Predict the 3D structure of the following.
Amino acid sequence: MNLTDGAFAHLATGGTGPSPYASSARVSDARSPALPPDHTQAILETTKEVGAVLKASGRPFALVGSVAAYAHGIPVRLQHDTDFALLREDADVVTESLREHGVQIVEPPEDWLVKARAGGEEIDLIFSLAGRPVTAELLARAQTLPVDSVHMPVLAPTDLMTCRLLALSEHHCDFGPLLPMARGLRERIEWEQVREAVVGAPMGEAFLYLLELLDVLPRRHGS
């Protein structure tokens, strides 16, 4: 515990009255923003329900985003939504199937996804990942994994890391969630494929260099 000189002196002299720093500490605590709620289990329940509907539709899809990382065994705290990748041409069939199962469909202004809501949680149905169209080949590489008891296709580790790095920009560049993913999946990721995919993407290249400095990846010659 770190103490200021004044607070330390108050304790060292056996002061029994309230510390002169107690009130300021309470004010600081009161002003601290509340931590965002942990939606992990609620998001997992929604993911299972939507995944079951998508499986029944017979159309190819894959779980992506933070919940995909969770399915691959990465300890993450889910807070925002659950994301599924699917082919644009399957959007109408999939959304109609979800509507029939009570999922609320929201048409956003963006043309690369459809938003939905179920169980109080947000759902993104995505046709384009990091600016690249979702393809049948991408979905075919997905791995079937259990998501809290329901098996469904989950984006493969190499594709998951590539998409996350290509999504980084000057306005959204948080390496924090990516580090545990890189460490946890490093033996399952084809890193040379990732390197080739992010050539010319400054944030992606910077993250790979950071992994070298942290000895997560071997340093390349000349690094």
